[in-house]
Amino acid sequence: MRPSSGSTTPSLFSLHAARLLAVVALVALLGACSMFGTKGNTIDTMPLEPLYNRSHSFLEAGNYSGAARAFQRLIARFPSGPYSEQAQLELAYAQYKDNQPDEALSTINRFIKTYPANKHVDYAYYLRGLINFDRTSGFFERITKRTGGMTRRDQGYNLQAFDDFSELSRRFPDSAYTADARQRMIYLRNLLAQYEINVAEFYLQRKAYIASADRSQYVIEHYQQAPQTGDALAILARSYLALDRTKLAEQTRDVLALNYPDHPYLSDPKWPHAPSLLRKMIPFSGHH
Question: For the whole prediction, is pTM greater than 0.70?
């Protein structure tokens, strides 16, 4: 019997469309499986080498959060062996690039402690230095916006990065990373010296002469090769004069004239006229 005109039986066209939609959905599902891996091909079940390759491919593609997750899973599933060691090193790098310095530092410290004889441990020391080096990015903002809060506590990451690079240079003088580390040490040394000069100028302008003398003396004693030593001698001379220590002021000025004959203080006894918070602060031009 032919259906009546009001029948709800689907037409041949609608049945064909339904089948077509089902095929499209199946193709999409298969595509998703190939993209994310089938049940037998996920980071939870994938064999070691393919899992490492996938994790590393995330890292190379700049997917640092994905790389970190994949490396963490690899380490959890395969906690020992050369792949695990390499995965921990690359995990630290992925966390560093993903702006997770605390996690990266924890990972790299664990790697150094666990695998001190690893052939890439020199890079681990270098990476630890980079992590702390890049944590100093807020330094300029701190010294320009919170002048009253200048203390050595603000230099913590600078000092730690300097120590990290110093340890790399001492332990691995022939490492491929040592030359760059030494350049960063010079930059950090000058940065630390300039920080002390900034604080010394701050105290000098506020007539806290004992404090300004203390800070400038600190630069002279600890950063002798830094270009800021001349400024430290000048501030120290001015501080001694203000404290009525005339003989010490004259001796300090003579040392300044002998070592820095072109220093502006020698022709302008009132130098510096105002704190120059960013004097000589040249951004580091090295690369990671």
Answer: yes
